[in-house]
């Protein structure tokens, strides 16, 4: 079994920088989790008008309503099998703002049906987003979000472009500085920038069997629909 990112990237996986390859090999087969710790040079959002929407999302750990510079940052990627039998990897980001940290949670699976990674956002997996991935010429991993769907009970609807946040993520390894670099930008095609952050971190790989997966890293509710 290969990791969800190896399945999504196919031969393109071999074009990634070796350190990026290892980080995105996290899965049940590797038996490893990856914990990154560093500092985000900047955490930003699009303006005052967007803050109430970000604050609402933050109640379910979706995006972050605060801004800042030099914000301590942790990302926790742990593989596990969810209640539907799918290999799942956590992407739990913690921004240690003064006074109170903010979390931005996601869990990812590879969907054979959709032919891509599906990113479930937040603590309740209400939002499912297709992720399209490729290796760029510098060996960085580039992730672009695609179609989004909202699922809650009988509700099963596509999120229209008018209110959708489109994300572009680039994660690379800097050989000279010996650190990972990440840049995230979320925008709306009609209203412009919504949220983003950029900075650096170091990564540690740990055995899942020895450490397990903390309950607070897993979603409160799981959604079967991709």
From TrEMBL:
Q: Identify the residues that the record assigns to the DUF4166 domain, covering every copy.
A: 16-201
Q: Name one Pfam family in it.
A: DUF4166
This protein is called DUF4166 domain-containing protein
Natural source organism:
Nonomuraea longispora
């Amino acid at each position: 079994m290969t990791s969800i990112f190896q399945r999504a990237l196919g031969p393109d996986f071999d074009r990634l920088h070796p350190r990026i390859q290892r980080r995105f090999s996290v899965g049940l087969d590797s038996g490893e989790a990856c914990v990154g710790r560093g500092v985000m040079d900047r955490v930003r959002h699009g303006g005052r008008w967007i803050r109430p929407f970000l604050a609402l999302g933050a109640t379910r750990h979706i995006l972050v309503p605060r801004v800042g510079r030099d914000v301590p940052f942790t990302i926790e990627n742990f593989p596990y099998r969810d209640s539907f039998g799918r290999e799942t990897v956590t992407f739990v980001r913690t921004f240690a703002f003064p006074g109170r940290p903010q979390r931005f949670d996601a869990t990812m699976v590879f969907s054979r049906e959709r032919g891509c990674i599906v990113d479930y956002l937040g603590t309740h997996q209400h939002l499912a987003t297709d992720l399209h991935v490729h290796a760029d010429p510098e060996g960085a991993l580039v992730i672009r979000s695609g179609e989004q769907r909202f699922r809650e009970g009988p509700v099963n609807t596509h999120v229209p472009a008018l209110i959708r946040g489109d994300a572009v993520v680039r994660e690379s390894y800097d050989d000279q500085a010996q650190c990972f670099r990440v840049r995230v930008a979320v925008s709306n095609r009609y209203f412009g920038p919504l949220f983003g952050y950029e900075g650096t971190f170091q990564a540690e790989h740990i055995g899942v069997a020895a450490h397990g997966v903390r309950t607070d890293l897993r979603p409160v509710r799981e959604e079967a629909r991709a």
